Amino acid sequence: TVGAVALDRYGNLAAATSTGGMTNKKYGRVGDAPIIGAGTYADNESCAVSATGWGEYFIRLNVAHDIAAMKRYTNLNLQQCADSVVLKKVLALGGDGGVITLDRAGNFTMTFNTAGMFRGYIREKEEAHVFIYK
Amino acid sequence: GPITLVIHGGAGTILKENIAPEKEAAYLKTLQAALDSGFQILAGGGRSVDAVIAAVTILENDPLFNAGRGSVFSESGKNEMDAAIMDGSNLMAGSVAGVTTIKNPIQAAYAVMTKSEHVMMIGAGAEKFANDQGVAIVDPSYFFDSTRYKQWQKVKLKAQSSTSLLDNVTRDKKFG
Q1: Averaged pLDDT for residues B26-36
Q2: What are the pLDDT digits (tens) for B88-132?
Q3: B25 CB near a chain A CB, below 8 Å?
Q4: Of A67, A133, A132, A59, which is closest to residue A99 (Cα–Cα)?
Q5: In 10 A of CB A72, how many CB atoms?
Q6: Within 13 Å of residue A116, how many CA atoms lie on the same side as its CB?
Q7: For residue B59, what is the nearest residue in chain A, using CA coordinates?
Q8: Per the CB < 8 Å rule, is A115 touching B81?
């Protein structure tokens, strides 16, 4: 699975996710990536989210929207919201994976509960950074 | 806030000891290319929706990542792909699922968002809609990747065993 979240100079957020799914999947199985609110979500009032991981868990927990709702309706910062969902709720159910998130202030997270996640970021007037391992 | 782009290329049991240096370099190179592609749009005053499409398209085109070209194989030997996009400024969203002939599924998702009154389309219908909207269609063989194929063969053998889900040889238990 791959994904991106972006903030443009007009203050607008966007999220995108794309995947081949699960090896050997049957019966037209679909994971969280194309389900709005599960693997992909964006709202200028909260944040943009793209997820990767064990789709069934991300669907059940409505992960992307849960992070966005937490950001919108609580006083938690973005990192706390992402950590709360990915490192606590998803893990507690037995799922694994990660998310990238970004808000209108330019705060972002790359949160995952696995050994690694291919990831990177770039911001205005900063060098790009890419990572693989924890 | 400052214009910003963040990307991912999947998470999992990704350990340094399992990735050869040249493969690691290839992963990093494509991640960098995806960032460059999307950021160029943002730096030029472009929209965030266009930036995320540009970044994801680069990743979909690289067989190293499980999206677009190089997607994993389904039980029936197909590459079935899904994609979604959402615009935070107006809550418009579009997605496609179970598509096998759309070269860049993220561009089909964008077409669903902007050129239909729907949010999600699946299978043959999504492919017809994408074709009608001028999104590039390819033969399913375009998505074939030999590494993924071997991975699938290995998983199929393991799937015949009742202990397949407990076997860690393939380093991933999320098999269909």
Answers
A1: 98
A2: 999 999 999 999 999 999 999 999 999 999 999 999 999 999 999
A3: no
A4: A67
A5: 13
A6: 17
A7: A2
A8: no
